[in-house]
Specification:
Blueprint lengths: L1 E4 L5 H15 L6 H7 L6 H10 L1 E7 L2 E8 L4 E7 L8 H12 L6 E5 L3 H6 L3 E10 L2 E9 L1
Parallel strand pairs: 4-5
Antiparallel strand pairs: 1-2, 2-3, 3-4, 5-7, 6-7
Length: about 150
């Protein structure tokens, strides 16, 4: 596995990885209805590409397959961190997160962690600031504001 900077050509594969990961890995903690509003399968690729280019975005690849990605903005907000459903527990999220934390240059890092991701971030030393409910298309989704 190699880490590299995001390239616009990655966006479509990353959107598919996001959808597949949410609908498989997060299925143990969220209902089908919640998964469907979280990852609809209709990502605005133009907006995602713009966001990835504005943030520091790290992509993990094996050969020509993207196996994970994460991004952090200039304020220290760790926006997305997803690993391919078939590559869980291989150290990919840790490697991406190590790099994103390094890129934060000592800033306070904040993330909104899913129920599924909360233990991962706690293990890395993040603390829960608050539990919150986000409404998407009228459906409640629980996550945790965490910081390190």
């Amino acid at each position: 596995m190699q880490l590299r900077e995001y390239e616009p050509a990655d966006c479509e594969q990353m959107a598919e990885l996001f959808y597949q990961t949410v609908h498989s890995v997060n299925a143990k903690d969220y209902t089908e209805e919640q998964l469907n509003v979280w990852a609809t399968g209709k990502v605005d690729l133009h907006e995602w590409d713009k966001s990835f280019q504005e943030h520091r975005t790290i992509v993990a690849v094996e050969g020509d397959e993207i196996v994970g990605f994460g991004d952090i903005d200039r304020t220290g907000y760790l926006d997305r961190l997803f690993v391919h459903k078939d590559h869980q527990r291989e150290g990919i999220a840790s490697a991406i997160c190590d790099e994103l934390e390094r890129l934060a240059n000592g800033k306070l890092i904040t993330t909104h962690a899913s129920i599924t991701a909360k233990p991962f971030f706690q293990h890395r030393g993040y603390r829960v600031v608050k539990k919150q409910t986000v409404i998407r298309y009228g459906i409640d989704l629980t996550n945790y504001v965490m910081e390190k």
